[in-house]
Design a protein that fits this description.
The chain is 25% helix and 23% strand. It is of the alpha+beta class. The protein has a single domain, classed as CNF1/YfiH-like putative cysteine hydrolases. It has a six-stranded mixed β-sheet. Strands 1-13-5-2 form a four-stranded mixed β-sheet. Strands 9-11-10 form a three-stranded antiparallel β-sheet.
């Protein structure tokens, strides 16, 4: 497990907690080995429950924080929810981002190639996480999440978690066109695919950076991973098909 904002000089970092899991440290067998946190992928639910308990235990040991995780039913959309309201209702909700102004409530997203984006403000009054696959990113999930935080975007910090890298994320021409329709300057985020002559490769990290900077979010970290290439650390749906899910989460301490 990785704690992505511990050493960043960005606002009241002592009041922010964040974690990005790897595939190691859980109880699930192949092909979910081993810290699968998703109930929806075919793993035994008892294994997922045990893995989520282990996640809470790691956070408690590291930070001393007793967390409630807000887990979402992700649908590659742009809906953003208040994590505290979701937990209070007690019902699963279809959404791809959440925010919180309540200490001890963790905004979590699950991924296995899509891009997790963590956001927090300089004064540590609000945190958010977004699940940004290409469709959600093109449709505006990052913009919707920043808007839901209701703070000056120039005071927001962002961290880009483990996602499929730009050398192997192959997409069709229609995906490239979806991005260029709203941002012609994003052309440099795409290159010819080395695998198929009629396809492209896309840089999810740079596409997300462009979206954030257009909102005046300039303080951006992360973006150095490739879930597809690093099978020892990360789940990858593109690489393996049936596989587990990692979690990336942020909370106010």
């Amino acid at each position: 497990m990785y704690f992505p904002v511990e050493n960043q000089a960005c606002g009241h970092i002592d009041r922010i907690g964040a974690i990005s899991t790897t595939r190691a440290g859980g109880v699930s067998p192949q092909p979910f080995d081993s810290l699968n946190l998703g109930f929806h992928v075919g793993d035994d639910p008892a294994n997922v429950q045990q893995n989520r308990r282990r996640l809470r235990e790691v956070v408690k040991e590291k930070f001393g924080d007793e967390l409630q995780f807000c887990w979402l039913s992700q649908v590659h959309g742009t809906k953003v929810v208040d994590a505290s309201e979701v937990l209070a209702a007690g019902n699963p909700v279809e959404a791809d981002a959440s925010f919180s102004r309540t200490p001890g409530v963790a905004c979590a997203v699950m991924t296995a190639d899509c891009l997790p984006v963590l956001l927090w403000d300089k004064d540590a009054t609000v945190v958010a996480s977004a699940h940004a696959g290409w469709r959600g990113l093109a449709d505006g999930v990052v913009e919707a999440t920043v808007d839901a935080m209701e703070v000056d975007p120039a005071q927001i910090f962002a961290w880009l978690g483990p996602a499929i890298g730009p050398d192997v994320f192959e997409i069709g021409a229609e995906v490239r066109e979806a991005f260029l329709a709203t941002d012609e300057g994003a052309a440099h985020c795409f290159g010819p695919s080395p695998f198929n002559d009629d396809r492209w490769v896309a840089d999810l990290y740079e596409l997300a950076r462009r979206r954030l900077r257009r909102l005046d979010v300039e303080s951006i970290w992360g973006g150095e991973f490739c879930t597809y290439a690093d099978a020892a650390r990360f789940f990858s749906y593109r690489r393996d098909g049936q596989t587990g899910r990692m979690a990336t989460a942020i909370w106010l301490r």
